[in-house]
Design a protein that fits this description.
about 575 residues; alpha/beta; Serine Threonine Protein Phosphatase 5, Tetratricopeptide repeat; five-stranded parallel β-sheet; 12 strands
């Protein structure tokens, strides 16, 4: 007999070995199944084909860190049925650390706009802490819920993991590439402590590149490549102290306090910066913190010289975690999910599982459905089948009107066919996606009347000035390319060229177009300065291109961030 109280919670997750996968998706699902015995908790791989059908019928849908445009119509269908959808974004994706593997992807304002669209369409937004809530509240009116990271299991007794005081004092640091700048900024003082403190040892777990930055004798340092979460916890069990240095950056202020929880749970003492992610933990445990590398050094020396104080302080942090941060004892997620469930189970659907917790990979989809549509439409266009392409794009866009990629393809196809409704479609696109410069550029590029072109570019300049620099830089190539094409045809646009050059002074394309215009106009004195600039840049390029192309920009950004912090520490 069917249990009328049974509910299905479907979470679209990333099933991998990252901390986010476990702390935010997999472990919470398992805990929920233990807390609500009659619930069906399914963690489905976010790439599975089944996601589009299962998502429509789940009593509650939870979507993590998604940019999957194909899910937007599903959310709309759920809303029409009275079913709720939650989304989670647990990073400040606007300002990622330079060494992060996702730093390049997150420089795109298009991905920001997609994330924000999911926030707007959902019935609730999940975050890990107060700073993220504050940040995202400036972007969306959707209700934001803070669900802190919790420890998934009750840890072993403190004394079972505590290292004897007679053993060498082991200082541990573990982290992803996103923490590389944080570590490098504090590394000189950490190294100084190890050298000046007999019987101390540094253990590091992370990316294989990290040891190359550490200057210590081989017998004073050991390195473990990043592995599974189980291996990470085993690493912590071998440490007396776990250090978690952070630079005071917008991204770091939005982190959670999970490192403090993890370190404490393994009977090690967390040494934490006096920054927002750790403020509540520091207050609750009365744990000394540091605001500089010198203060971290002094704390290390204090605990190196007083092992009893070290053990007592570590035990206090362990006890706080045991009493306050064990997931099974926390009900905030259970209560939130319960409040969003329908009074009666959603429409009958033949789920392949009963009550309990299930991790399902499903049939992985090679690419999103809308990407397949775009490729099919492109094939039609290349074959000269413009009407078929238009019909397909109209059909898919009508089914998913919040997908800007489909709309942009539809506009381009409509332009080729000289469709009568192109102006209306373009106007609707700019109103629907005002922050997406591609539509304003499309409008500027389709105009043929010189005066109207100048007016359009004037409006576009206003829009550019209203955007942050990162967004402007992202669209720089498109802006400059389209403008220069039109400037070559319509020299009357030269005042716009001068204004654009103020925004993009390092653009050789703009410099060249303006120089050619000035030369053709008989303004030799003005033209020659641009030609001088271009000659100098060409010489620099010939000299440096090979070497510069071998240097990763993220590597430079990471070292610059770390060295700026070191210099600030020295000058403070």
């Amino acid at each position: 007999m069917k249990d009328s109280n049974q509910r299905t919670i479907l979470q679209l997750v990333l099933i991998d070995e990252t901390g986010d996968s476990y702390h935010r998706m997999r472990w919470p699902g398992r805990i929920l199944a233990e807390q609500a015995k009659n619930w069906r908790i399914i963690n489905l791989d976010a790439r599975a084909k089944q996601r589009l059908i299962w998502s429509e019928y789940a009593d509650l849908l939870v979507i993590y860190q998604s940019s999957d445009h194909d899910l937007l119509p599903v959310i709309a269908k759920r809303r029409a049925k009275g079913l709720k959808t939650l989304v989670e974004y647990n990073d400040n994706f606007y300002e990622p650390p330079p060494a992060s593997p996702v730093a390049k992807a997150w420089t795109s304002p298009l991905i920001w706009q997609t994330y924000e669209r999911f926030m707007h369409e959902a019935d609730g937004l999940l975050v890990t802490g107060p700073r993220l809530k504050q940040l995202f509240s400036e972007k969306t009116d959707t209700t934001i819920h803070v669900l802190e990271n919790q420890l998934s299991n009750i840890p072993d007794e403190f004394d079972l993991n505590w290292r004897e005081s007679s053993s060498p004092l082991v200082i541990g640091w573990a982290g992803s590439l996103g923490h590389l700048s944080d570590l490098l900024a504090f590394l000189p003082k950490i190294t100084e402590f190890i050298i000046n403190s007999p019987g101390s040892h540094l253990r590091i777990m992370g990316n294989e590149a990290i040891p190359s930055f550490v200057r210590l004798p081989d017998d004073r340092i050991s390195f473990t490549p990043w592995g599974t979460m189980e291996q990470y916890y085993d690493f912590l069990k071998g440490c007396h102290i776990g250090i978690a240095p952070l630079l005071d950056t917008p991204y770091n202020r939005c982190r959670s306090d999970v490192k403090a929880i993890e370190i404490s749970s393994q009977a090690a003492l967390p040494l934490l910066p006096n920054l927002l992610p750790y403020r509540d933990f520091l207050t609750a445990t009365d744990l000394p913190s540091f605001s500089s590398a010198d203060q971290l050094y002094q704390l290390l020396r204090l605990y190196w010289s007083d092992r009893k104080l070290l053990k007592d302080t570590a035990a206090k942090c362990y006890q706080y975690v045991l009493e306050n941060r064990i997931a099974m004892a926390q009900t905030a997620r259970l209560e939130l999910y319960s409040s969003l469930l329908p009074k009666q189970a959603a429409a009958e659907f033949k789920w392949p599982f009963g009550a309990g917790y299930f991790e399902v990979q499903g049939d992985l989809q090679a690419e999103a459905a809308y990407v397949t549509t775009l490729k099919t439409a492109q094939g039609y266009l290349q074959a000269g089948k413009l009407r078929q392409a238009l019909q397909l794009l109209e059909q898919e866009y009508n089914a998913n009107p919040l997908n800007p990629e489909l709309l942009l393809a539809l506009l381009k196809c409509s332009q080729q066919l000289k469709a009568r409704n192109l102006p209306e479609l373009l106007s609707a696109a700019q109103n629907k996606f005002p922050a997406d410069l591609r539509f304003a550029l499309f409008a500027a590029n389709t105009e043929e009347r010189p005066q109207q072109i100048i007016e359009n570019w004037g409006l576009l300049l206003q829009k550019i000035h209203s955007l942050n620099r990162q967004t402007v830089n992202f669209f720089a190539r498109d802006i400059i390319t389209i403008f220069c094409q039109q400037f070559t045809r319509f020299p009357i646009m030269h005042p716009i060229a001068e204004k654009l050059l103020q925004i993009f002074p390092a653009s050789s394309h703009l410099q060249f177009c303006l120089a050619e215009y000035l030369f053709a106009s008989g303004k030799e004195a003005e033209a020659i300065n641009h030609y001088y600039w271009l000659k100098e840049q060409k010489q620099l390029l010939n000299t440096n291109q090979r070497h510069l192309s071998s240097i990763e920009e993220n590597y430079l950004n990471t070292l610059i961030a770390a060295l700026e912090a070191r210099l600030a520490i020295q000058n403070s």
